[in-house]
Amino acid sequence: MKNFFQKSGRLLAHGFVFSALLFTSCSEDSIEADAGITPDVQNLQIALKERPAEPIIIGDLGPSAIQTAVQQTTEAPGIDRGRFNISLNFLLPPTDRQLEVFEAAAARWERIIIGDVPSIEGPLPSAFAGFPAIEGPIDDIVIEVALAPIDGPGGVLGQAGPQFVRNADFLPVSGVMFFDVADLDFLEQLDLFEEVIVHEMGHVLGVGTLWNSFGRTLLEGPISNPFFTGRQANVFWNAEGGTNELPIENVGGPGTALGHWRESILNNELMTGFLNLGENPLSRITAGSMRDLGYRSASVGESYDLPRGAAGVDINELVSEEVEGGEGINIAKMETILMPIGIIK
After folding, report:
1. Phi and psi for 179 in degrees, rounded to 5?
2. Are strands 158-162 and 164-166 parallel, antiparallel or unpaired?
């Protein structure tokens, strides 16, 4: 896992994921506008760029001088010698503790996703207004991290998701994690700071954001009782003691339903929409789902105790489930899940 410091939810919101994406070309002007900007950190107002009305394609601009500056993939492994690598690009200097937590979160995902994917030479447009392009090479994904004021304590915790995906496998090459610093101390007091970062990093890597995009059909069933169709995740769901099909969250607003495992059944698994006080393991179920997305992942997970016989979705008797809350925080209610904005050819 590399680290760079650069100076310078719920219901049918996920309906977007159900439909195929239409792509338009990225203009020369948009790429050139991102390069060479050096923001004044002291007077910086952190903000994501406006989401494009239509996703962007980078790399189909035709023969021109800028074509060589746009991302091109290479099969050469990076300095990690073929291992999957998560790079963190902090827009503002993190504290030692923040850096420690983000690096620990990345390491937890790197224990699951192990296979190298093609590097991108760069540059890549930043997700944030006023920041320069991300320089390459990018091996294997770079996540821009902004820890800055948003709306004060107790409101929006943050936004996270993939930005650009590769054309070859539709796996993310860049992503964004934008958190309100006013909420971080509270998470630390609950001993959930790292858990929240791991959870949001999962969305960047594709959990709930890439399930039904770019030809994938991993989420099926009615909105009242959706389930996950990926073979590997279901193998571990059954191995952990679950029956029938792996249930996806069916209650809550945009960002919760259809984007997490079902809290009422999977309880404290980290990728439900509710983080419990105490342990929130990243189980073999989530690890298997990463392979279903297309990653080369290990069949490993953190210790997880799913009650034997936990009822999944019986596709012959589809019924809705109600969420059962416990002590902890409703992470999904405080987050905004971002969908990818473009593709790199």
Report:
1. -120, 145
2. unpaired
Nearest to 21 by CA among 237, 342, 313: 342
CB-CB contact of 175 with 141 (8 Å): yes
In this structure, what DSSP letter does residue 338 have? Answer: P
Q: What 3-state DSSP class applies to 156? A: coil
pLDDT in single tens digits along all 345 residues of the chain: 655 333 332 222 233 232 223 222 333 333 333 434 444 434 457 899 988 888 788 874 333 322 333 333 334 444 555 789 999 999 999 999 999 999 999 999 999 999 998 788 878 899 999 999 998 889 899 999 999 988 888 778 889 999 999 998 999 999 999 999 999 999 999 999 999 999 999 999 999 999 999 999 999 999 999 999 999 999 999 999 999 999 999 987 767 899 999 999 999 999 998 888 889 999 999 999 999 999 999 989 999 999 888 999 987 765 433 444 456 666 656 677 788 888 887
- 319 Cβ partners below 8 Å, 6+ apart? 224, 225
User: Are the beta carbons of 1 and 86 closer than 8 angstroms?
Assistant: yes
**Residue 61 in tokens:** 């601009």
pTM (two decimals): 0.80
DSSP state of 272: B
Directed axis angle between helix 96-110 and helix 193-205, to 10°?
A: 50
Longest CA span, the chain: 60
